[in-house]
Amino acid sequence: MTGPFRKIVAVLEGQTLSPPPIWLMRQAGRYLPEYRETRSRAGSFLDLCYSPEHAVEVTLQPIRRYKFDAAILFSDILVIPDALKRNVRFVQGEGPQMDPLDVSEVATLRPDGVLDHLSPVIETVRRLRQELPKDTTLLGFCGAPWTVATYMIAGHGTSDQAPARLFSYRNPIAFERLLDILADISAEYLIAQLDAGADAVQIFDSWAGVLGEAEFQRYAVGPVARMVRKVRGARPGARIIAFAKGAGMNLKTYRQGTDANAIGLDWTVPLSFAAELQKDGPVQGNLDPMRVVAGGRAMEEGVDRILQVLGSGPLIFNLGHGITPEADPEHVADLVRLVRGIT
Ligand code: CP3
User: Fold this and answer.
1) In degrees, to the nearest 5, what angle opens at C-alpha 6 toward C-alphas 9 and 301?
2) Domains and CATH numbers, the chain
3) 75-99 mean pLDDT
4) N or C terminus of the chain: which is more exposed, having fewer CB within 10 Å?
5) Are 30 and 322 in contact (CB under 8 A)?
6) CB 175 within 8 A of CB 168
């Protein structure tokens, strides 16, 4: 018995599809009026993440509008520090905040109970698989240990992750211990998402670009490789997309180093280099989100170039980072038509 054909699953297994399937990072978000409406009814941002009813609703909103080839679970990478009792809150206009993690606190982090805390998110995945069209791929996700650690150490977002870099140089042993804890619970969390019906999972390493060469190997490749091993050890054949934003030339060894099925590319990755990476397997990306805000010719040009250079190999069309709140929903409709060749 073969199941329904899911295009993004097919590309993750190495097929080339023309036109390529498409989804967008942060496709459920503030650029959509219906998201803002549900968001205001849900209470706090974390209440939205932990309400299966509301989280299912906002996950489905962009699918209804654009019939994207994948739905991505609505949640956040910072539910892991929240589950580790770091007092996470999302302050309107200021971004996420939590209690900054001191070196002496690493040994006090308690991984037990994390999956219980996240059970509403797993329930969201279960309901999504029931409610989604059968041919829509369902993606789960989590943050990569390095990126989650940067928020835990600083206690908020920073522009260069100086606090986490400094912590890693001053306290390498405690830092590696922290990454191991995060890798192990994140792998368990991904396994639970796969068991609940996710077809594939994406690991977001949004801050990989601030790491030096040796640190990239140690703190970006190493922990993600550990997660992939753990997930595939428990669920052979699990499909994994790894997105290391800003990794540049380090992407050369990222796929082999992590053993991810596909690698995500941000918009600064030159397309000629992307084509080299695609010889080793599927790639995902990499339109500049600002081209979607601009719309019109700027968006057309960007799409054309990507399709020209990467369209004849295994490609999942996406942005090079999340869609931003100022994007016009009509531009997104235009983007989907452009990629699908509908005039
Ligand atoms: O892609 C999707 O549609 C699924 C949902 C999703 C969200 N966050 C919802 C969200 C996903 C996959 C994420 C991942 C995430 N969260 C990352 C990695 C990807 C990236 O963007 O680099 C990171 C670094 C975070 C942490 C985070 N969450 C920040 C820094 C912020 C504040 C900045 C902002 O855009 O407001 C959030 C909040 C957040 N997560 C929002 C959404 C829709 C906006 C909050 C709101 O609605 O008030």
Assistant:
1) 80
2) 7-340 (3.20.20.210)
3) 96
4) N
5) no
6) yes
Contacts of 171 (CB under 8 A, 6+ apart): 103
Whose tokens are 């709140």? That residue is 325
pLDDT tens figures, 245-264: 999 999 999 999 999 999 99
Any idea what the Cα angle at residue 17 is, between residues 227 and 77, rounded to 5°? 30
Per residue in 291-314, pLDDT (tens digit) is 999 999 999 999 999 999 999 999
Predicted pLDDT of residue 1: 56
Which ligand 1 atom is the nearest neighbour of the CA of 36?
47
Return the CA Rg of the chain: 19
Asked whether 77 lines ligand 1 (CB < 6 A), one says: yes
Which two three-digit tokens encode residue 7?
């295009």
Instruction: Looking at the CA of residue 29, tell me the nearest atom of ligand 1.
Output: 43
C-alpha 74 to ligand 1 mean position (Å):
9
The protein residue whose alpha carbon is closest to atom 48 in ligand 1 is 45
Asked if 309 contacts 271 with a C-beta cutoff of 8 angstroms, the reply is yes
